[in-house]
Amino acid sequence: MSRNKLFKELFTNIGTTGAITFSSKPLVDKMLSFADFKGAKLLVELGGGDGSITKGIVERMDSDAKLLVFEISRNFCDNLEKMFPQENVIIICDSAENIDKYLDQVKADFILSSLPFSLIPKPIRAQIYRKSKDSVTEEGKFIQICYSYLLKYQFADYFSEIKTSFTLKNFPPAFIMICN
Ligand SMILES: C[S@@+](CC[C@H](N)C(=O)[O-])C[C@H]1O[C@@H](n2cnc3c(N)ncnc32)[C@H](O)[C@@H]1O
Predict the structure, then answer these.
(1) Which residues of the chain have pLDDT under 70?
(2) Ligand 1 center to residue 117 CA distance, Å?
(3) What residues does ligand 1 touch, defined as CB less than 6 Å away?
């Protein structure tokens, strides 16, 4: 899928994508610097989109690790499947609220999310928070990029420890919330 088509998909679905552009490489690098990929066996990404974060994860993950990518846009999913044909990258064209159905009680080392929580209806958002908390190992982390610091107060209902980071090297500037 060309860059133009990816942007068209982003804009025409702004109500569910919640972004005017994709994450910059500096933002992706900073987000992923909070995850220790060495030895991590199961990784989950929520909101694969154009694959900018997926690419960063794939570059860092162990060869025997598995990555599950949740994305609700069929067009983005088709593109992700072409970009990441490897067997250990599984593109799931379903909402993140169904994460438990695919994990089958196995816990992930990291959940890396760029979901637009401010646009997701409250009951669904609550399910994603709760299931994410339940789906990550005790030492694992749920790492979210977002544009509003206020989301921290929503995460605090589910995660006991939340660290925040910020970068200007993205448009718009973005927060990274590291939760466990
Ligand atoms: C802000 S975009 C991020 C795209 C890309 N990962 C990036 O960082 O640039 C959010 C993505 O989440 C997807 N999305 C929105 N709600 C979702 C849900 N409930 N489950 C899975 N994906 C969802 C959108 O289709 C969109 O691709």
Answers:
(1) none
(2) 9
(3) 16-19, 22-23, 46-50, 52-53, 70-73, 76, 95-96, 114-116, 120
